[in-house]
Amino acid sequence: LSGSQTNDTKRQFLLERLLDAVKQCQIRFGGRKEIASDSDSRVTCLCAQFEAVFQHGLRRSRGLALTAAAIKQAAGFSSKTETEPVFWYYVKEVLNRHELQRFYSLKAISTDVGRGRAWLRCALNEHSLERYVHMLLADKNRLSVFYEDWSFMMDEERSSMIPTMAAGLNSILFAINIDNKDLNGQSKCTPTVSDLLKESTQNVTSLLKESTQGVSSLLREITASSAVSILIKPDQDSDPLPVLSRNVNA
């Protein structure tokens, strides 16, 4: 496969994994009074898939945060992995002063990796993720400063589905712990696209052939869900989706 085909396949795979994670949470928690917490593997998987999408194709050479991290590394104050770009660098561009202060004031969160993860979980809890994603995608020039051209966020067609998926989660009562020291782990803890591809039972060829119909069908189901009735039904004949371990390193 050429470079552009490979990148397209990775973006498609990320999209399908995120759609599946949203669907599994809707099936389990949608429209119910039951709380969806991070003790449930489906919620953990959902957060991991959103992280993978937001991390994909982040530029390594832009942003004052990267420069500051590089200076700290040279001075011996941080490990090499901390210079890796994380999606918090871009998210904080759309947050106001009060919102920024909220995440920098968390007692257990001490890294930019953790702040990004805390923001994502907070947005799920408060049903504000759809609004935030619209803000993240609105300024194409700013987006291109932080993301490579081949990134998921720069893929207009696929990234435009994220707000719809976020809206599909609004019937779920999330109560995810955001001030949690476990969220501080380095960005390497977020599954990379290559890791996710290894986990997949589908090969690249079948993925390209079958993906379009599956995505449109899943998106219709997610859009059709409401707070009163969730129209998505689990496939009785299929095996449950694999879920990510809470401790990926282990």
UniProtKB/TrEMBL annotation:
Stored Pfam families: RUN
UniProt superkingdom: Eukaryota
InterPro entries assigned: Run_dom (IPR004012), Run_dom_sf (IPR037213), RUN_SNX29 (IPR047329)
Domain RUN residues, every copy: 37-181
Protein name per UniProt: SNX29 protein
Gene coding for it: Snx29_0
